[in-house]
Amino acid sequence: MSKISYKQPIAELQGDEMTRIIWDWIKEYLLDPFIDLNTEYYDLGLVKRDETDDEITKEAALAIKRLGVGVKCATITPNEQRRTEYNLKRLYPSPNGTLRAMLDGTVFRTPILVKGITPYVPNWTKPITIARHAYGDVYKATDCLVPEGAKAELLITDKDGKETKFPVHNFTGSGIVQGMHNTDKSISAFARACFEFALSAKKDLWFGAKDTISKVYDGRFKQIFAEIFDSEYKARFADAGIEYMYTLIDDCVARVMRSSGGFIWACKNYDGDVMSDMLATAYGSLAMMSSVLVSPDGKYEYEAAHGTVTRHYYKYRDGEETSTNPVATIFAWTGALAKRGESENNIALVDFAKALEKATLSTIESGYMTGDLASMFSLDGVKPVKLNTVDFLKAIAKNI
Ligand code: NAP
Ligand code: MG
Q1: Residues near ligand 1 with C-beta < 6 Å?
Q2: Domain 1-114+290-400 in this protein, CATH class
Q3: What CATH code would you report for 118-140+182-283?
Q4: Where in the chain is the domain with CATH 3.40.718.10?
Q5: What is the pLDDT of residue 328?
Q6: Residue 111, number of CB atoms within 10 A of its CB
Q7: CA–CA separation, 112 vs 239, rounded Å?
């Protein structure tokens, strides 16, 4: 059998710990035997980031911009404990933060549904995709303690030096205050990424915020979404047979719970942080969640939603066998390969990506899976068998 090839490389970003090990195994057992992998390789492992003063992360982001498609392994975001463990020169920022800032992207997370793993919300028969705005709000806020008797005001100095003050609060006792921001540019990019993604997935888009309380701030989000939708997307949505709906975030949550899934839920940064963990848990597992960062100019970076699975890595390092779930990392690869296939009209490559996803799910549905799934698997007539990671990958390879 001849291997499938394609023209333009994919940016390949390898990461840390257990997911770094699984990365190589996925290539060895599931990709190399079938595909002439053509990648531009960036080692985002913490050792290399430290060696290059984190320049490698920026180079990788530029490569995704240039090549249009990237695939990323989970990476360590260093803290004090990691600084000691890896003897780091300094505490580097989160690679995902750097990539999101450079690509100005929106993160889309979709649960991977499989028979035998039942969502906690039984009416969710189709996946719900969360679209999380990845810039600003409380993630770029300044906050401080306020002493008793102080007055807090918001001061805006325009480019000519003219000052405008807005009262926040006159404190009789002590308290707290926080200042946060967003930009029209980033909100517009978020809106376009959501509309584009809805069109490509052919799914309805819901957006929830709180403009009744946060009239100017959340009102600005609502207004920008409405303006861009009316001027650029209304007709295209109608042609595709899909809808855009804005509703208050609390009403949105109630509708989500009653729904059967199958739509995209756009969330402001903080709402997206909270709601994506709720959804991942409700659908079964973080290891069964695909994730893609989409930039407003149509660049795609695929990743797993979980971390580097440190606890399993320490066991692996001590020579123990682990049963770490590789599904989200496999789907990062299939997402990237299918996107590259689409961009080159390469049907064989798109079909391979689909076949690998199908083989992965059918392996689980036939009873062979990693330990995290085996403990919650329930399907009539199928007895779950827990495999270690490599045996699970070999079982998938047999099914392709
Ligand atoms: P984690 O790596 O997601 O793992 C937390 C726990 O969730 C694991 O100990 C394991 O539970 C379970 N789990 C996660 N993924 C799994 C998988 N594929 N298969 C089986 N079980 C899985 O989160 P963490 O331990 O909080 O973070 C570890 C490192 O990852 C940190 O250095 C953090 O900075 C980094 N991180 C990176 C990303 C990213 O790059 N996207 C995201 C989050 C965290 P059990 O131990 O009970 O088996
Ligand atoms: Mg979170």
Answers
A1: 74-77, 96, 286-287, 303, 306-311, 324-325, 372
A2: alpha beta
A3: 3.40.718.10
A4: 1-114+290-400, 118-140+182-283
A5: 97
A6: 26
A7: 28
